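Postdoc handover notes: sequence design on the structure in folder B. Input tokens:
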């Protein structure tokens, strides 16, 4: 199973690019039937991670994946897990 990774460090302060990057990685995960996408918002203030979680909670995005896992040891990561039949 394929895994994808999205590191948001380079675009952390550009909201529209963040949404586009998130949409692109989720679309790619669906296209190739990836098992997991690792999103790295970084530690920082936590605002970027909240932005990522809000994006994933949108009604058109939420049905695309199985579950979200937040890294308990490293607040700078979120995994989006997919389940394919």
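Designed sequence:
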């Amino acid at each position: 199973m394929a895994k994808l990774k999205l590191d948001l460090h380079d675009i952390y302060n550009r909201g529209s690019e963040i949404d586009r990057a998130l949409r692109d990685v989720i679309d790619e995960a669906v296209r190739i039937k990836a098992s997991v996408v690792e999103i790295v918002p970084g530690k920082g203030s936590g605002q970027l991670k909240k932005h990522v979680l809000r994006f994933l909670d949108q009604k058109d995005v939420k049905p695309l994946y199985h579950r979200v896992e937040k890294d308990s040891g490293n607040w700078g990561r979120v995994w989006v897990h997919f389940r394919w039949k």
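Context for whoever picks this up: Helices lie at 15-32, 47-56. Don't rerun without checking with the PI first.
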